Amino acid sequence: MESRSLLRAAVLGGTSAALGGTLWRGAAYAAPAQPGTGPYGPLGSPDANGVRLPSGFTSRVIARSGQRVGSTSYTWHNAPDGGACHADGTGWIYVSNSEINPSGGASAVRFSSTGAITGAYRILSGTRQNCAGGKTPWNTWLSCEEVDRGYVYETDPWGAKAAVRRDAMGRFKHEAAAADPVRQVVYLTEDVTDGCFYRFRPTTWGDLSSGTLEVLVAGSGTSGPVTWARVPDPSGATATRGQVSGAKRFNGGEGCYYANDTCWFTTKGDNRVWQYNAAVQTIELAYDDSLVTSGTAPPHGCRQRHRLLLRRPVRRGGRRHHGDLRDHPDRRGRPLPPRRRTVRLGDHRPGVLSGRQPPVLLEPARHDGQLVGRHHVRGGGPVPLVTSPAAGDRGTTEGGTSARVPPFCVLRTLVVEVCVRSGELR
Fold first, then answer.
1. Considering the entire predicted model, what is its pTM?
2. Domains and CATH numbers, the chain
C-alpha cells in the first residue's frame, strides 16, 4: 500500500457513543469520506524543523536525545516512547518512557503556562525497555516494561516521590495500561503473539499495592460475551497467559484507552482494533485491516507502537476536515478515544519530541515526504515545540470541570498530542 494513503472512516459521534463497532464495520465497506477545506488555511512549506504548519504557527526545538533539555542540566533519554501530559496548576508536565534495555526508565519535562521549559528530570531509573503505560485518575504515570516477566512501575510526574514497583499487577511482557474509574480497574495489554488482555482490580481504588489480576476469557470468535478469571500466580513463574483455561489470545497487544464504558485496544500482529464493552461485558472486533480494500484501508495503522493513527473528521457546515499523518511501516496502534479533548498520534522511534497548541489538527510532514523521526536515530533527533495563535482557550476536562487548555502539546519521536477545544470534534 502506498505510504501516503490516509486513515479512513473514524467518524465521531455527537453526544452518544462514537467509534463503535458498527461505524468501524461500516468503514470497511462504505465509501470513504472526502476531505473538505480546513478552517486554518493550507499547510506551508516545511520549516527548519521539517514541520509543515498553517500560517500563524511556529515550531522550536526543545530537546534532543543525548543532549541537555533547554537551559536545564538534564540530558534527554534515548528511545522516547509512551507518555502523557499532567496539569501542574501553573503549567504542564510531560512524562516520557525510554524504551531501552537495560536502563530504560522515564523522564519528565515541565512547562510553564506559556510553553517555556522550566525543568527536566528523571522519574524512573534502573528498569528495562519501558514502552507504553498509562495515566491514572490520581495523576501518576504507570510505566510498563516490555520484557518477559516485566513489571509495572507507578511514577510521580513531579519527581517528588520515588517510583514504586507494582508486583500485584502481574509479571509479563507489558505494553499499555488504561484506568477505568467506573469499575475501578486497570486494563493491561500483553505484547506477545499469543498474549492476553488483563484487568487489575486493586483492593482499594487509588492504591495499586495489592489487588487481583484477572484475564479475559472468551470464545475463539471476534465478538461475544466474556468473563474474567483470576490469574492464580501473577508473579509469572508460569507465564500468566498460560494459567487460565480459555483465556482469549490476542496477536501482539499494544495500546489501550478507556472512555465511556469502553476499553479500546489494538493488536499489531493482525492489524486489528478491539473494543471491550465494560458495561455489558462483551468484546467486539472494531476494525480489521484485512476487510478494508486498498485505497480505503489505513496504512497499517495498528502497527504503530501504541497509538492508532486515525483520520478524524471534524464536521463544520456539513463538511469534514481531516488531520492525518503519513504511514510508517513500524508504527503500531492505539485507538483514539471518542469525544476526547486530547488526541494522540505517534511513533515509538527515538529522537523527536514535538508539541503544538490547540485547537488545530496538524499534519506534521517532512520535505522528503517522510515522517519526522521516521528513522532509527538513537543519538538524536529534534524535539520541536509548536505554538499557535489560539493560546489560552478554555475547555472541559474529562471530569467535566472547566480548565485552561495547554498552549502546546508535547510529541515524542512524533508523538503528536493534539489538543482541541471542548466540542471542537463533532
1. 0.68
2. 21-419 (2.120.10)
- Structural contact between residues 116 and 90, judged by C-beta atoms closer than 8 angstroms: no
Tell me the CA distances in angstroms from 231 to 164, 179, 222, one per residue in order. 22, 19, 23
| Distance from C-alpha of 426 to C-alpha of 409, rounded to nearest angstrom | 21
Q: Is 353 helix (H, G, I), strand (E, B) or coil?
A: strand
More confident residue, 178 or 310: 178
Question: Nearest to residue 107, comparing CAs of 88, 134, 130, 90?
Answer: 130
Residue 116 parent element (H or E): none
Give the ranges where 191-262 is alpha helix by DSSP (H): none
Of 370, 269, 368, whose CA–CA distance to 328 is shortest? 370
Extended strands (E) in 231-318: 253-259, 262-267, 272-277, 282-288, 312-316
Helix (H, G, I), strand (E, B) or coil at 240: helix
- Alpha carbons 101 and 77: distance in angstroms, whole number: 12
Q: Is a pLDDT exceeding 90 seen at residue 137?
A: yes
Nearest by Cα to 64 from 357, 363, 384: 384
Which residue type occupies 279?
Answer: A
Q: Which residue has the cell 519526522?
A: 372
Q: Which residues contact 364 (CB under 8 A, 6 or more apart)?
A: 51, 52, 325, 354, 371, 372, 411, 414, 416
| Coil, strand or helix at 43 | coil
Q: Residues 164-187: pLDDT tens digits?
A: 999 999 999 999 999 999 999 999
